[in-house]
Specification:
Elements: H1 3-22, H2 29-36, E1 40-41, E2 48-49, H3 53-57, H4 61-78, H5 81-100
Antiparallel strand pairs: 1-2
Helix pairs in contact: 1-2, 1-4, 1-5, 4-5
């Protein structure tokens, strides 16, 4: 494992973690997953309700990033390098785009 692989895994882990915690995802997949796990929002206060251990896990970036990172490392060690790069690269490119800014696309 070289530094490029570590960078790819770190950026992909960061991006996927934020997607699961904060975004709806395509076809609302992340939103549906959070609901299935028991995450809900108190309409009056705006606070998250996390009654289950799984709901607590997927709303904590420190907790979730650890497990997502393990997933990417398993892919790295068990799959050919081209497969790891194919899976990680879209997340990495998205993360870099976010870090560099959206270039005024929201305006």
């Amino acid at each position: 494992m070289n530094w490029l692989d570590v960078f790819l895994a770190a950026m992909a882990t960061w991006r996927l973690t934020l997607m699961v915690i904060n975004e709806n995802g395509p076809y609302m997949i992340f939103s549906k997953f959070r609901t299935w796990a028991g995450v809900s929002v108190n309409i009056e206060t705006g606070e998250l309700n996390t009654p289950t251990n799984l709901s607590k896990l997927i709303t904590c970036s420190f907790c979730l990033s650890f497990w997502v990172g393990i997933g990417f490392m398993e892919i790295f060690f068990l799959a050919p390098s081209w497969l790891f790069q194919t899976i990680a690269l879209p997340f990495v490119l998205s993360a870099i785009t976010i870090l560099l800014g959206d270039g005024g696309l929201d305006e």
